[in-house]
Each structure stands twice: as C-alpha cells, then as structure tokens.
Amino acid sequence: MAVSMATGLLLSSSTLTLRTPRFAFHTSSSSSSSSSSSTLRMAPLRIVTSATVSQPPPTGGKIRGIMKPKKISPEMQDLVGQPEISRTQALKSIWAHIKEHNLQNPEKKRLIRCDEKLKKVFAGRDEVDMLEIAGLISPHFLN
C-alpha cells in the first residue's frame, strides 16, 4: 500500500480512496455518514511496453485520389505552368498566385478578387469566395 500526501490519495492494489475536499463521491446509497473519503474500484493499469512511429507509405505504392496528377485545361496550364498536376498542388499554386498578386479583399479576407488569369479559371467571375475555389477548378481537370 502506498500513500501520496501531495494529492491526498491512498492507493492499494484494488482500491483508490480520495481524500480531497473538492470531490464528493458517494458509492453506496445506504451510507449515512458524511465522510469526505470514499472507495472506488479501478481496473488494473495498462503499461505501454513499446511504441512505434508510423512509417511513410512505400515509394512503389500507387498514388490515388486528389494526390494523383491529371491533365488540365489550357486555362489552368497558363495559371500553374504545368500540363499535369494534382488537385492539391493546383490549389497550392492558385493560393501562391493569390498571395503573390495581393488578390485577397482586405476587408473581407474570404473574398478573392480575380485578375485575368483567375477569371479564365473561375468562369469569368470578378470575385469568388475562398470556399468556392475547389469546386470552380474541378472542370479544368480532364479525364
């Protein structure tokens, strides 16, 4: 049995007794005493013996989904400068273009003001919301 004076806990192999005035646990309904300590049953502690760091995917694995490079439209090629690009890299390139040319609306940061290159990609719109960008570039990825 071990006693910890700093936390007010009395530890034994099968029970935990709290002796702190902040907590009031009542485990039995027939208890009429107003004692500040009570006994709680606890499950045995699990001890972690080893941990491993997750490994990166093998280099020979197939790239799928939004990470897979696809052919893009000429308008998108003009903006990103590549004939094939993944959706994630296209979004990064678009955001780099927006930041480089200071196209974010200063009052409403969610709104992007389109220059000529962005107008070609964003269906001729003068201004788009940042959450619309992913949907507006979808038609530019060719099958």
TrEMBL record:
Stretches assigned to the DM2 domain: 65-143
CDD domains per UniProt: SWIB-MDM2_like
Domain of life: Eukaryota
InterPro entries per UniProt: SWIB_domain, SWIB_MDM2_dom_sf, SWIB_MDM2_domain
Entry GO terms, CC: nucleus
Gene3D superfamilies, A to Z: SWIB/MDM2 domain
Name of the featured protein: Putative transcription regulator SWI/SNF-BAF60b family
Source organism (scientific name): Medicago truncatula (Barrel medic)
